[in-house]
Amino acid sequence: MREYGFTFPTLSVYNSGYLKGAARMNVYRKILLSVAALAAFCTAFSLWMQYGFGFDPCVMCIVQRMAILFAGLAAFVLAWLPQRRMWARLAAAVGVSIPAAWAAWTAVQQLHLQSLPPAQQPSCGAPWTFRLQNAPLFDWYEPLIRGFGQCGVIEKFLGVPFPWWSLLACTAMLAAVWGGLWYNRRFEQ
C-alpha cells in the first residue's frame, strides 16, 4: 500500500519476543507443557461429560480423573526445573509417570471389571464423597470427586468406553515423557 503513502503497521507476535522464547524453549520443557495441556483437557472433558451431559462417574473413573490431574500438575511444575540437566529431566519423567501409570492401571482394572458378566462384577466401593466427607477443605474439591456410578456400567464416547480413552491419554503421557527423555539424551547432548 505504499503507492497511497500509507503503510499498515505489522502486528508481529514473533518479533515481540513471545514466540522467540517458545522457539528457544527446551524440547523437553515443551513436551512437559504439552503433557500438562493434555491432562488439563482430559480433566476438563471428564468434568464436562459429568456436569454437562449427566454421566455419573464411578469410583474408578474418579481415581483416573484425579491421577491424570496430578500427572498434569506434576508436568507443569516440573517443566520449570533446569531442563538442560539430566537429573531434572529424569525427575520430571518419574514425577509424571507415577500418577499416569496409576491412572492407566486403574483403567485396565476397570476394563477387566466391565468385561465380567453383571452377576460376577464386584462392587467398586463407597463413593469418594462418603469417604472424604470429614476431610479438611472438603467443600473445595468435592465437585471433582462427586459421583455414584457403577464401575461395571459401560459408558461410551464415540463408541469407545471411557476407560479406553483414559488409557489412551495415559499411554500418550508416558510415551511423551519417556520418548522425549530418550530424544533429548540421544540428539541434544
TrEMBL record:
Keyword Membrane (UniProt): yes
Biological processes annotated in GO: protein folding
Give UniProt keywords alphabetically.
Cell membrane, Membrane, Transmembrane, Transmembrane helix
List localization entries: Cell membrane
What Pfam families does this protein map onto?
A: DsbB
GO terms (molecular function) for this protein are: protein-disulfide reductase activity
Coarse class of the primary localization is membrane
Q: In the UniProt record, does the keyword Transport occur?
A: no
Question: Transmembrane segments in this chain: where?
Answer: 31-50, 62-81, 88-108, 162-183
Gene Ontology annotations for the cellular component aspect, listed alphabetically:
plasma membrane
Q: How does it sit in the membrane?
A: Multi-pass membrane protein
The protein, known as: Dsb protein
Q: Which organism is it from?
A: Neisseria shayeganii 871
